[in-house]
Amino acid sequence: MSYSIFLLRFVGGEVVGLDAERFRQVTGPYVVAGGPGEGFSQLRAEDGGEADVYHEAHGEHGMPCVTVMHFARGAMLGVLARLGAALGASIVPQDGGALIFHEEERRHLPADLQENAVVIAPTAEALQAVFDTR
């Protein structure tokens, strides 16, 4: 069974586009298959851990969402956390909740995500700690 996380950027409780160029800059060094123009990228981190990343650019409005599946623990979690922070996105696991990188981001989340949102550092260790509690 696969576990997914979603990178979403919220402003005023609404989803807004992610910066496709910043996405390319952060993921570029890790792409081993696919790429931004294909809507799918397979990433590989320094320790060999991989992730399948689905994304679609929508012109001037950016990417509405990045979906990450089949991701390895370890260094790949650091890549994903840094990507979320660089995009100004929240990480929303498929089983609910939201992970944010700055407390001031909480007010931009939809109302149903605000109360239980968790502030984390953009590191593999912080993201791993959250997954260990689920």
Overview of the molecule:
With about 130 residues, the chain is α+β, with helices and mostly antiparallel strands. It is about 25% helix and about 30% strand. The protein has helices at about 20-25, 75-85, 110-115, 125-130, and strands at about 5-10, 15, 30-35, 40-45, 50-55, 65-70, 90-95, 100, 120. The strands form two sheets. Strands 1, 2, 3, 4, 5, 6 and 7 form a seven-stranded antiparallel sheet that branches. Helix 1 (about 20-25) packs antiparallel against helix 2 and helix 2 (about 75-85) packs across helix 4. The mean pLDDT is about 95.
Low-confidence stretches: none
Helix content: 25-40%
| Cα shape | globular
CA radius of gyration: 14 Å
Percent of residues in β-strands? 25-35%
Distance linking N and C termini = 16 Å
Overall pLDDT, averaged?
93
Structural class designation: alpha+beta
The sequence of SSEs as H and E is EEHEEEEHEEHEH
Give the tally of β-strands: 9
How would a textbook summarize the main sheet? Answer: 7 strands, antiparallel
- Count of helical regions: 4
